[in-house]
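User: Some background: our group keeps a shared notebook of sequences we're curious about, and every so often someone picks one and asks for a predicted structure to add to the entry. Today it's my turn. The entry only has the sequence so far, pasted here. Could you supply the structure so I can complete it?
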Amino acid sequence: MVRLFFLGTCAAVLTGASTVHGQGPTGAARCDGPLDRETVVACAVRASPEARQARAELDAIAGRRLAAGVWLPTNPVLALTTARRRGAEASLPVQAVNWSAVLSQEIEVGGQRGARLTETDSEAAAQVRRLYATEQAVAAQALTIYFETVAGRQALTLADSLRATAETFANVAEARAREALAPGVEADLARAEAARLGLLRIDVGRRLASVTADLALLLDVDPRALQPEGDLQPVTLPPPDAGTPSYEDQALRLRGEIGVATLEREVLERRLVRLRRERIPNLTFSAFAARDGFAEQVLGAGISLPIPLPAPLGRTRAGEIAETQGQIRAAEASLDLVRRRVRLEVAQAQANYEARKQAVALFSADLVMRARKDIAALGEAITARQFSVREALVAQRTLIELLQADHDARLAEVLASVELARVAGIPFGGKQP
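Assistant: Of course. Here's the predicted structure to add to the notebook entry:
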């Protein structure tokens, strides 16, 4: 029987890997230049040791399939014998020289080769799904760190602006205190607020350096070469496919972990078939030629068949079969556990994403823009003595908290969209194998 599954599997891996990376078979993403979300996914998957390990395991399965596809279970055996015949007394001359040659070959007659190939093909299919699941997990991790880096840069810009405004407040308050136009406590409050925003800026810079190092390590590039671009926009979440009324049903159909668990159970079922077929005794065919003591030439053929003995006296594969049957039952339970976990993950991710969307909706773009302008205007208002320093500090802190809450809400929405796409089985690039 001609088997094309394994070749098709390898082709799917090569094609699927290039499409998941976001590149064609001949394209290659540049990781030392501007980085958008597609480039980040491509570079992260290409640099991932986990993905390389999964591909190497597929190469190992190709070697096992080559070993499983041999036609003969053993090599032919050629046995040669020779003997000299003497008389009853050692002093008598040699009377005759006998020789024989036997050529034997063992043949599988129970379909063991086909069972081995089927089992190996199932292992290859499971490994392809495992590779896909690994690449999806790496892509989700890369997108999460990428968005955190983009958010960190935006937060650093905002922190620099706020610190500059706070310094203006503090300078004006101290000048008023020196001129006895305002209590000294207001100057101290303004300086304390400037120090607080300075610490905030340091903390933002520290977190940005940390996520930048994480992203550089994930992409295997120099952190100084990173140029993340883009804004905090949620990833595209297409509606569930036709025939799947919800993300939960889609996840049960598309998630790589479920595919792996299903195919691992199939591998065990194929192994059980192979073990049962290996209990069928192999036939050994032989042909021989000999010369006996009467100088006669003898030609002949023979066939031998092993005699199966019951366990534990003989080898009947009973232990291996019982072990595999237990593993199949365990694989079925594992599949149920994976399905339950996927259902829970989708429900939690969907609820989290909806909540994050509602939080972002509370901060209109017009409100955030006015808040930025109001903070800048407060400095001018203090200089013009339209506000007291204490009133301006209270207003400034409220506006700063508004901007921080808007920034945190948008980042949380983006990260929630990445998580929902991952748990729902939505490919981050290319198609599912």
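Suggested note for the entry: Strands lie at 34-35, 77-85, 96-107, 227-228, 283-291, 297-304. The mean pLDDT is 83.
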